[in-house]
Design brief:
Length: about 160
Protein backbone atom coordinates (compact mmCIF):
# COMPACT_ATOMS: atom_id res chain seq x y z
CA UNK A 1 0.00 0.00 0.00
CA UNK A 2 1.28 3.42 -0.95
CA UNK A 3 0.68 6.56 1.10
CA UNK A 4 1.51 10.03 -0.17
CA UNK A 5 1.47 13.10 2.03
CA UNK A 6 1.41 16.76 1.10
CA UNK A 7 5.21 17.02 1.26
CA UNK A 8 5.34 14.51 -1.57
CA UNK A 9 7.18 11.98 0.52
CA UNK A 10 5.91 8.47 0.28
CA UNK A 11 5.81 5.35 2.36
CA UNK A 12 5.39 1.86 0.98
CA UNK A 13 3.82 -0.58 3.43
CA UNK A 14 4.38 -4.20 2.44
CA UNK A 15 2.32 -6.90 4.10
CA UNK A 16 3.91 -10.10 2.87
CA UNK A 17 5.17 -12.97 4.92
CA UNK A 18 7.56 -14.01 2.15
CA UNK A 19 9.86 -10.99 1.84
CA UNK A 20 12.59 -12.87 -0.11
CA UNK A 21 10.20 -12.92 -3.11
CA UNK A 22 10.59 -9.15 -3.28
CA UNK A 23 14.35 -9.46 -3.69
CA UNK A 24 13.77 -11.23 -7.02
CA UNK A 25 11.92 -8.16 -8.32
CA UNK A 26 14.99 -6.10 -7.46
CA UNK A 27 17.41 -8.40 -9.33
CA UNK A 28 18.72 -9.80 -6.05
CA UNK A 29 19.83 -6.32 -5.04
CA UNK A 30 19.00 -5.75 -1.38
CA UNK A 31 18.46 -1.98 -1.76
CA UNK A 32 14.68 -2.46 -1.75
CA UNK A 33 14.97 -4.03 1.70
CA UNK A 34 17.18 -1.22 2.99
CA UNK A 35 15.17 1.76 1.68
CA UNK A 36 13.87 3.67 4.75
CA UNK A 37 10.61 4.49 2.91
CA UNK A 38 9.72 0.80 2.63
CA UNK A 39 8.14 -0.89 5.63
CA UNK A 40 7.93 -4.69 5.69
CA UNK A 41 5.34 -5.91 8.15
CA UNK A 42 5.32 -9.60 7.38
CA UNK A 43 2.26 -11.57 8.42
CA UNK A 44 -0.06 -9.04 10.02
CA UNK A 45 -3.48 -9.24 11.73
CA UNK A 46 -6.33 -8.48 9.34
CA UNK A 47 -7.60 -5.54 11.39
CA UNK A 48 -4.17 -3.86 11.19
CA UNK A 49 -4.04 -4.31 7.42
CA UNK A 50 -7.52 -2.80 7.04
CA UNK A 51 -6.49 0.15 9.21
CA UNK A 52 -3.47 0.83 6.98
CA UNK A 53 -5.63 0.39 3.89
CA UNK A 54 -8.10 3.02 5.09
CA UNK A 55 -5.23 5.54 5.25
CA UNK A 56 -3.54 4.52 2.00
CA UNK A 57 -3.80 5.91 -1.50
CA UNK A 58 -2.68 3.02 -3.69
CA UNK A 59 -3.08 -0.72 -3.33
CA UNK A 60 -0.90 -3.03 -5.44
CA UNK A 61 -1.65 -6.68 -6.13
CA UNK A 62 0.82 -8.48 -8.39
CA UNK A 63 -0.74 -11.93 -8.63
CA UNK A 64 0.29 -14.12 -11.54
CA UNK A 65 -1.78 -17.16 -10.73
CA UNK A 66 -5.43 -18.02 -11.27
CA UNK A 67 -7.06 -16.74 -8.11
CA UNK A 68 -10.71 -17.64 -7.66
CA UNK A 69 -11.28 -14.62 -5.43
CA UNK A 70 -9.10 -11.92 -3.90
CA UNK A 71 -10.55 -10.44 -0.74
CA UNK A 72 -7.63 -7.99 -0.37
CA UNK A 73 -8.45 -6.44 -3.76
CA UNK A 74 -12.14 -6.12 -2.87
CA UNK A 75 -11.17 -4.58 0.49
CA UNK A 76 -8.81 -2.08 -1.13
CA UNK A 77 -11.47 -0.94 -3.58
CA UNK A 78 -13.94 -0.72 -0.71
CA UNK A 79 -11.43 1.52 1.11
CA UNK A 80 -11.33 3.79 -1.98
CA UNK A 81 -7.71 3.00 -2.78
CA UNK A 82 -6.49 3.40 -6.34
CA UNK A 83 -5.83 -0.29 -6.96
CA UNK A 84 -3.27 -1.65 -9.42
CA UNK A 85 -3.79 -5.33 -10.25
CA UNK A 86 -3.40 -7.90 -12.98
CA UNK A 87 -6.58 -9.22 -14.57
CA UNK A 88 -5.31 -12.77 -14.16
CA UNK A 89 -7.80 -15.30 -12.84
CA UNK A 90 -10.81 -13.61 -11.23
CA UNK A 91 -9.05 -10.33 -10.47
CA UNK A 92 -10.50 -8.51 -13.48
CA UNK A 93 -14.03 -9.39 -12.40
CA UNK A 94 -13.37 -8.39 -8.81
CA UNK A 95 -11.83 -5.07 -9.91
CA UNK A 96 -15.10 -4.30 -11.71
CA UNK A 97 -13.41 -1.77 -14.01
CA UNK A 98 -12.05 0.33 -11.15
CA UNK A 99 -8.44 1.22 -10.54
CA UNK A 100 -5.65 0.39 -12.95
CA UNK A 101 -5.98 -3.20 -14.16
CA UNK A 102 -3.40 -4.68 -16.50
CA UNK A 103 -3.21 -7.86 -18.57
CA UNK A 104 -0.36 -10.32 -18.54
CA UNK A 105 -0.21 -12.74 -21.44
CA UNK A 106 2.16 -15.27 -19.91
CA UNK A 107 2.11 -15.74 -16.15
CA UNK A 108 5.54 -17.38 -16.29
CA UNK A 109 7.24 -14.34 -17.87
CA UNK A 110 8.10 -12.61 -14.59
CA UNK A 111 10.32 -9.98 -16.21
CA UNK A 112 7.51 -8.81 -18.52
CA UNK A 113 5.03 -8.84 -15.63
CA UNK A 114 7.36 -6.66 -13.53
CA UNK A 115 7.87 -4.28 -16.49
CA UNK A 116 4.12 -3.83 -17.03
CA UNK A 117 3.47 -3.58 -13.28
CA UNK A 118 6.15 -0.89 -12.86
CA UNK A 119 4.61 1.18 -15.66
CA UNK A 120 1.18 0.97 -14.00
CA UNK A 121 2.57 1.84 -10.55
CA UNK A 122 4.30 4.94 -11.93
CA UNK A 123 0.99 5.90 -13.55
CA UNK A 124 -0.86 5.38 -10.24
CA UNK A 125 1.65 7.46 -8.26
CA UNK A 126 1.42 10.29 -10.80
CA UNK A 127 -2.37 10.11 -10.60
CA UNK A 128 -2.29 10.50 -6.81
CA UNK A 129 0.40 13.21 -6.81
CA UNK A 130 -1.56 15.25 -9.35
CA UNK A 131 -4.87 14.82 -7.46
CA UNK A 132 -6.47 13.14 -10.48
CA UNK A 133 -7.98 10.18 -8.66
CA UNK A 134 -11.68 10.37 -7.91
CA UNK A 135 -13.06 7.03 -6.72
CA UNK A 136 -16.64 8.21 -7.24
CA UNK A 137 -18.99 5.40 -6.23
CA UNK A 138 -16.25 2.73 -6.26
CA UNK A 139 -16.68 1.73 -2.59
CA UNK A 140 -20.48 1.63 -2.82
CA UNK A 141 -20.46 -0.61 -5.90
CA UNK A 142 -17.82 -2.96 -4.50
CA UNK A 143 -19.57 -3.15 -1.11
CA UNK A 144 -22.88 -3.98 -2.80
CA UNK A 145 -21.32 -6.51 -5.17
CA UNK A 146 -19.20 -8.35 -2.59
CA UNK A 147 -21.09 -7.99 0.69
CA UNK A 148 -21.59 -10.99 2.95
CA UNK A 149 -25.33 -10.61 2.37
CA UNK A 150 -24.85 -11.00 -1.39
CA UNK A 151 -22.60 -14.04 -0.88
CA UNK A 152 -24.99 -15.62 1.61
CA UNK A 153 -27.97 -15.17 -0.71
CA UNK A 154 -25.98 -16.55 -3.66
CA UNK A 155 -25.09 -19.70 -1.75
CA UNK A 156 -28.64 -20.16 -0.46
CA UNK A 157 -29.93 -19.76 -4.01
CA UNK A 158 -27.33 -22.22 -5.28
CA UNK A 159 -28.30 -24.89 -2.76
CA UNK A 160 -32.05 -24.34 -3.11
CA UNK A 161 -31.81 -24.97 -6.86
CA UNK A 162 -29.98 -28.24 -6.28
CA UNK A 163 -32.02 -29.67 -3.42
Amino acid sequence: MYTDNMRRAFRLNIFNEIVPDLIKIDNNNRKILEDPRFFFYGKTPHKTVLDHMSRSHIFMHTSNWHETFCISLAESLSANCLSVYSTFGSLGEIGSGFGIPYDIENEKDTAKHVEIFLEKIVNAIDTIKNNKFNPGNQAEIINNKFSWEVFTNSWIDFYEKRI
